[in-house]
């Protein structure tokens, strides 16, 4: 009997609970812990963790065999480290939305108004990530907050959250295909290929690379995301040089544009409307920070990688986002006509405008290349997240079971990957005039989904922490504790719910268009219909705090403590051995580790 057969499990759509027995799980955990504690401390304990996953092997497998099918899904390959988790999240977030959309933020709210909007949204994201970090560290399961919603809120909630999240990333992926096909034609030689042709070229590249496996996929994202981060840091440095008059004919700028045309775009109610509008835009640009937890199922050591990655992602994203808004606000007045009337994406980018005003005339080409890299990187992350979400939905019976299948060699969810990429070909609608409008609506619909997902994460955290205490566990035993709980989580939950309804308020201002109102709010009624449809069909119920399952997918803390203790002993031994080596041997050792 294969490991997938022996430890196969399913989820009851009524209860949302795993159907394997707790007694069997506890026996497996005890046997594995005993084997580890009796082993030699020089063993590679990190490998042991990635193979046996510190507890019930049922939760490591995360694979479900459909007895009525010849398709046997395999577990996802645990090959990601902290740097992969960090860059996968950053790669999905820093896209053309920041490089180009930040100009719209500046024009709509002004430099101080845009900073306020991005800072407030960043605070919401911080508490969402804290909540998610606490749960994902203890439960680094495939599907992450989708499974938390299904088990701790209501099985019907897991169904809704899963499909809303998949729809969000498919829409973003389609938009990236459309964006890269347009941006690359900024250079005249690229215009020999049509927009549809470029979409299909990048479509083929994305899916081919994805089939290489998660590690190659993550390494590519690491490189692309690193280029974007370095590019933004270089922009920050050049912005300082331009601001102090080191280049160009503007002389010393300082905070000139904060005074004239002013810190806000307009005064009174117009200034407030501008901030409110960008508050919603900034939330859309922050979407993807939660992806760190979704990738936790493929982390080699989730307990160490996830908390560190979550902290790193938030700090870097906040620094890059606020830094970008701050520096373009310093060097570009918010009433600059190019921000809203430029003929191309690269020309409309506030980064391009800032550099050109500073006398760096080749800026458009450089920024265009950076936009293309950012689009490819964001598309890479979008395809990864969407396919893994669909794979999780298939494995838990919320989608056809075929999507749960993964290849035996690279552990790639092949059917989920291909289907997701096929749906993303809605980007071809943008080629014709009438269909282009439909395509823009599809992209706009995904905006409110961010608030729905973040609100669900916060609600899961409230339920999890309440059940954790109710069932006799101690908060001190949690490997990662959310900062300022419960105030931070409740703050984020309430604001996300308010913003989900508030985000489309501008559609009610003159002139009122019914289609714009529908696009802004359709996700909310559709989510309600999906929720009650699944609930009535499967007769699900909301579990009480005593009924909430806190065992399935949970890490065995004592087991992990033992592994990490032995890891520290190995690291200390290696450090002492390196200390006894000569400098030449030590340098060769460092080089070997970097290259491998």
From TrEMBL:
Main location: membrane
Domain Amino acid permease/ SLC12A: 84-545
InterPro entries: AA-permease/SLC12A_dom, Amino_acid_permease_CS, APC_YAT
Membrane topology: Multi-pass membrane protein
Annotated transmembrane regions: 85-106, 112-133, 197-217, 229-255, 309-330, 366-386, 412-432, 438-462, 483-502, 514-534
The keyword Transmembrane is assigned to this record: yes
Molecular functions per Gene Ontology: amino acid transmembrane transporter activity
Protein location: Membrane
Sequence ranges of Basic and acidic residues compositional bias: 42-66
UniProt keyword annotations, A-Z: Amino-acid transport, Membrane, Transmembrane, Transmembrane helix, Transport
Gene Ontology cellular component annotations, sorted alphabetically: membrane
One Pfam family this sequence matches: AA_permease
PROSITE patterns registered for this protein in UniProt: AMINO_ACID_PERMEASE_1
Species: Pseudozyma flocculosa PF-1
Protein name stated in the entry: Amino acid permease/ SLC12A domain-containing protein
Bias (Low complexity): 25-35
Region feature (Disordered): 1-73
């Amino acid at each position: 009997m294969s490991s997938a057969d022996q430890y196969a499990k399913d989820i009851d759509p009524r209860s949302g609970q795993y159907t394997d027995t707790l007694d069997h799980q506890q026996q497996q955990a005890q046997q594995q812990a005993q084997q580890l504690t009796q082993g030699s401390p020089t063993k590679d304990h990190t490998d042991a963790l990635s193979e046996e996953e510190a507890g019930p092997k049922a939760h490591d497998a995360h694979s479900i065999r459909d007895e009525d099918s010849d398709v046997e899904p395999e577990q996802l390959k645990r090959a990601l480290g902290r740097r992969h988790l960090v860059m996968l999240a950053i790669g999905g977030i820093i896209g053309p939305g920041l490089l180009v959309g930040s100009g719209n933020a500046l024009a709509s709210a002004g430099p101080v108004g845009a900073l306020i909007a991005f800072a407030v949204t960043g605070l919401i994201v911080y508490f969402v990530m804290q909540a998610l970090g606490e749960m994902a560290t203890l439960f680094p399961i495939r599907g992450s907050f989708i499974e938390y919603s299904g088990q701790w809120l209501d099985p019907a909630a897991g169904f809704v959250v899963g499909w809303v999240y998949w729809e969000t990333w498919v829409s973003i992926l389609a938009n990236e295909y459309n964006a890269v096909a347009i941006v690359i034609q900024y250079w005249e030689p690229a215009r020999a290929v049509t927009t549809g042709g470029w979409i299909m070229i990048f479509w083929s590249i994305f899916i081919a690379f994805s089939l290489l496996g998660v590690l190659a996929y993550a390494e590519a994202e690491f490189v692309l995301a690193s280029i974007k981060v370095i590019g933004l840091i270089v922009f920050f440095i050049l912005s300082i040089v331009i601001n102090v008059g080191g280049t160009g004919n503007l002389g010393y700028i300082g905070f000139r544009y904060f005074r004239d045309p002013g810190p806000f775009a307009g005064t009174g109610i117009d200034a407030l409307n501008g901030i409110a509008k960008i508050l919603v835009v900034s939330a859309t640009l922050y979407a993807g920070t939660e992806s760190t937890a979704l990738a936790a199922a493929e982390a080699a050591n989730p307990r160490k990688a996830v908390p560190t990655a979550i902290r790193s992602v938030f700090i870097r994203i906040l620094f890059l986002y606020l830094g970008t808004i701050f520096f373009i606000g310093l060097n570009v007045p918010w009433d600059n006509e190019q921000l809203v009337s430029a003929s191309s994406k690269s020309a409309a980018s506030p980064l391009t405008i800032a550099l050109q005003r500073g006398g760096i005339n080749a800026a458009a080409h450089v920024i265009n290349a950076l936009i293309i890299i950012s689009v490819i990187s964001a598309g890479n992350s979008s395809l990864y997240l969407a396919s893994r979400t669909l794979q999780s939905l298939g494995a838990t019976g919320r989608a056809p079971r075929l999507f749960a299948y993964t290849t035996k060699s690279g552990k790639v969810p092949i059917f989920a990957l291909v289907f997701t990429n096929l749906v993303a070909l809605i980007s071809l609608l943008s080629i014709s005039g009438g269909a282009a409008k439909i395509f823009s609506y599809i992209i706009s619909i995904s905006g409110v989904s961010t608030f729905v997902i973040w609100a669900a994460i916060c609600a899961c955290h409230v339920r999890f922490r309440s059940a954790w205490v109710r069932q006799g566990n101690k908060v001190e035993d949690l490997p990662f504790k959310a900062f300022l709980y419960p105030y931070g989580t409740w703050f984020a939950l309430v604001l996300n719910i308010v913003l989900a309804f508030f985000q489309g308020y501008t559609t009610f201002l003159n002139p009122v268009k019914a289609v714009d109102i529908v696009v802004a709010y359709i996700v909310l009624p559709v989510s309600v219909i999906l929720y009650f449809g699944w609930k009535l069909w499967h007769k699900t119920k909301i579990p009480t705090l005593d009924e909430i399952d806190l065992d399935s997918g949970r890490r065995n803390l004592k087991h992990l403590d033992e592994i990490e203790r032995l890891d520290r002993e190995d690291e200390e031994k290696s450090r002492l051995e390196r200390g006894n080596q000569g400098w030449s041997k030590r340098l060769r050792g460092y080089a070997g580790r970097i290259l491998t």
